[in-house]
Amino acid sequence: MSDTVVRPVDDAVWGDLETVFSTPGDPSGCWCQWFKVPRAQNDRISVDERRELLHEQVRSGSPGVIAWIDGQPVGWAAVEPYSAYPTLARSPITRRRDDDPADPWAVTCFVVRSEFRRQGIARALLDGAVAHARTQGAEVVEGYPVDPEVRPSLSTAERYHGTVALFRDGGFEVVRRPSATRAIMRRTV
């Protein structure tokens, strides 16, 4: 496999990001708005509106990182401060506790084009997300992965949060288990 190049997204690579999100399945409908838009609003807006929301977010900053292999866009990981994801605070899985860092950077989503899966792209994206967060001043990065070791039947669609093994290999530690199949994992950067 060729080297994977990962860098923060900006408007110059919007077309490549559209290619990544055109992958069959949930990404082509979500456009990484699940944690950004309140559920009632998310249920009402169209796919085109979700795509435009992500495009606006890209124009306003860098809400994630994109990966290429041999110049071909292959994946995306969303990473921003926790406060940029309003629905995280309402979820029983990701709601803050008194002893949690106030506003860590959160890796919430991975998209890897189906023909490039099982090639280490998610690992490269996680490394890139951590590096991006660090350059933006993050002190702590966290993720909310699923654990296929507990439930091997997790579908590809259910793994968009990443897996516990992926985050563990990336230097993250489990800080709590809000459910049997989900973990909150953190890394100081």
Automatic annotation (TrEMBL):
Residues 4-189 form the N-acetyltransferase domain. InterPro entries: Acyl_CoA_acyltransferase, GNAT_dom. It holds the Pfam family Acetyltransf_1. It comes from Leifsonia soli. The keyword Transmembrane does not apply. This is GNAT superfamily N-acetyltransferase. It comes from the Bacteria. Keywords: Transferase. PROSITE patterns: GNAT (PS51186). GO terms for molecular function: acyltransferase activity, transferring groups other than amino-acyl groups. SUPFAM superfamilies: Acyl-CoA N-acyltransferases (Nat). CDD domains: NAT_SF (cd04301).
